[in-house]
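During the no-cost extension, the postdoctoral fellow (Dr. R.K.) reprocessed legacy sequence entries with the updated structure-token encoder. One reprocessed record is reproduced below for audit purposes.
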Amino acid sequence: MAVGKNKGLGKGKKGGRKKTTDPFLKKEWYKLIAPSLFAQKDCGRTLITKTQGTKIASEGLKGRVFELSLADLQKNEALAHRKIKLCIEDVQGYNCLLNFHGMDMTRDKLCSLIRKKQSIVEGNVDCRTTDGYIVRMFCIAFTKQQSNQIKNTCYAKSAQIRAIRTKMVETMTELGTKGDLKSLVKELISDHIGDQIVKQASSIFPIKDCYIRKVKVLKKPKFDVTELMEWHQADEKTADTGKKVEGEEEKEETALAGSGGRL
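Re-encoded structure tokens follow.
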């Protein structure tokens, strides 16, 4: 082989090895802010790659859905069987403002309710709230033995199940259409709807363990910042913050409000 003909032999591969950098150095943390009707407003953190060129971080965050336990949001362990879905609607600085996106029940709770020798009654309905949200609600209930019953089973007839399902649909439709989404979520958190259905269905067949099993937000109206801010304003009826401790007022006066991240 002639000397100097093949110039590429002495050199290594083009470019060489790339330096391995930690991918987390390119990311930043954002705070999740839950609506004011929950007791715990600061409910977590989320990661996103920093703004690079046309790829804006805040745009990538919008639409993210988070599933949280209602026990953590309300600081009440009795509500641990409920799961709440919250969706990022807007980003202000390093704060992500969340809105209601759905509700579910944990699998272990559902499995604990299902037993032999009883009938399951399920119903679902789509309803439109006054502020334009289309919501689908699922209800579940179980037949109950009477106190003086000798028979081992308590199966309901198909006609009785249909009648109970009609009562379920009527109650859920009335609840969904009478107010806006905020009032509906308050009712769902309080969990009184199941007791109403049990009372109404008692004349048809005795039932127990009636719950709104699942709630889906199918359609949302056009995004409006003022409506979202209403969800995040402190509501005196729902959030009981208690009385101020003496000496706190002086501290508040000295503390200056920061920018809260990027503007």
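The two ends are 66 Å apart (CA to CA). Strands lie at 27-33, 42-49, 65-69, 82-92, 95-105, 120-128, 134-143, 207-219. The remaining legacy entries will be reprocessed before the final report is submitted.
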